[in-house]
Specification:
By secondary structure, this protein is mostly helical. Helices cover 71% and strands 0% of the residues. The protein has 19 helices and no strands. α8 packs antiparallel against α9, α9 runs antiparallel to α10 and α15 runs antiparallel to α16.
Length: 390
């Protein structure tokens, strides 16, 4: 449908905002609510308007809502787009359109964009990056376009913060898919956007996320140094849940480096920092007592600690089932801990379950861990081990 020329200026403007019709209707509803406009707009009504078939008079309240959203008279919005607005033939017009689109970003727009990112996160953790990464890439381009053309005080910074969060999620997706160079680049973009956001929490989160690339590439000393510096930078100015998350990330890096004592100390600090009641904070981090236990169990399993099985089993029993990728990693850790305790049958059960989940969400990162684990489990056992599910 995007290849078809827009039938009305309204349709062209919505395309330039990189919104679907459903998203635009949500945006219009939020704008009307925040700006005390009585106009309403359903998806069916919008589809009639953009086609140029109004079928009767447009309600004045709805017309006023659209005029405020786009800064154009309703008659102009419902007319065919003028040739002078053609983006290829008139670069100046394209720039004006981008500036106009960014100028219309308000609190309700940013709230809607955050809600869309939260929805992508939910789909990502349940279905995997292989399903949702294209949608996230499109959202990144949309927000980048708005942020780079925003001139209004107080608008560019929250857009930059949102962009930083989007790039951290994209970086984690790339890492999970085994694309380490692309993951690093996303985290670089995240840190650059965070610097523009004028938000120490966003800067700290972006830097700490990048440390996981270092851990995966076995540059654990560099990861520890980066996380140590990041925790000092975040200090008391950041939300407690973020500081708890940073401490846990530090604990994982220390465990990967083989420093069990310092790792467990960091996890103890994370537990002390984690608030009893979690509020919606920015930047978003997925951390509660269950996730912290899962994370601590991962470190214990890395270090061969005898408590790893108990901690991981407790976390698995309480884990939200929508966190499919997290369950995959948890079962790999549990299999590792069981194997270390001599329970090879139990380890194989969890490893095979993890292999099925990794195949569902397309996690190359966990598949690699599972392959190495199954090689250990079947070493010395007669017969060939089953292949990891493709």
């Amino acid at each position: 449908m995007a290849d078809r020329p827009p039938r009305t200026l309204l349709e062209q403007r919505i395309r330039q905002c990189c919104m679907t019709y459903e998203e635009f209707v949500q945006h219009a509803e939020a704008f009307a609510r925040d700006n005390h406009e009585s106009g309403t707009l359903s998806l069916r009504h919008l589809q009639r308007l953009i086609s140029g078939r109004t079928h009767g008079a447009l309600r004045p309240a709805t017309a006023r809502l659209l005029e405020r959203l786009f800064g154009e008279p309703i008659a102009t919005l419902l007319a065919p787009p003028s040739a002078i607005t053609d983006e290829d033939e008139n670069p100046a017009a394209k720039l004006r359109q981008l500036l106009d689109a960014a100028r219309r970003v308000d609190r309700s727009t940013i709230t809607l964009l955050h809600q869309q990112l939260d929805a992508i996160r939910r789909l990502d953790r349940q279905l995997g990056a292989i399903v949702i990464r294209d949608e996230l890439d499109a959202k990144i381009r949309q927000v980048h376009r708005l942020a780079t053309h925003s001139l209004a005080p107080g608008t560019r910074e929250p857009l930059a913060g949102l962009l930083s969060e989007m790039h951290t999620l994209a970086g984690w997706q790339a890492l999970d898919l085994g694309d380490v160079p692309n993951s690093w680049q996303h985290y670089e973009h995240s840190r650059a956007a965070a610097a523009q956001s004028d938000s120490i929490p966003h800067e700290s989160h972006a830097a700490a996320e990048q440390a996981f690339v270092l851990i995966d590439t076995r540059a654990t000393s560099d990861a520890i140094e980066l996380l140590d510096e990041t925790r000092r930078h975040a200090h008391a100015s950041s939300p407690r849940v973020l500081r708890a998350w940073l401490a846990a990330a530090h604990g994982e890096a220390l465990a990967a480096h083989g420093d069990q004592t310092a790792s467990l100390r960091a996890f103890d600090e994370a537990a002390e920092l984690l608030p009893s009641e979690l509020a919606d904070e920015r930047p978003y981090v997925a951390l509660d007592p269950v996730h912290l236990a899962r994370w601590r169990g991962h470190a214990l399993a890395r270090c061969g600690h005898p408590d790893a099985t108990t901690v991981l089993t407790g976390a698995l029993n309480q884990l939200d089932p929508s966190f499919v990728r997290a369950e995959t990693a948890l079962r790999v850790d549990l299999a590792t801990a069981l194997e270390a305790n001599g329970d090879r049958d139990g380890a194989r059960i969890h490893a095979n379950h993890a292999a099925r989940l990794a195949a569902q969400v397309g996690s190359a990162r966990q598949r690699r861990r599972i392959t190495n684990l199954l090689d250990d489990l079947f070493q010395g056992v007669s017969g060939r081990r089953p292949a990891v599910i493709a």
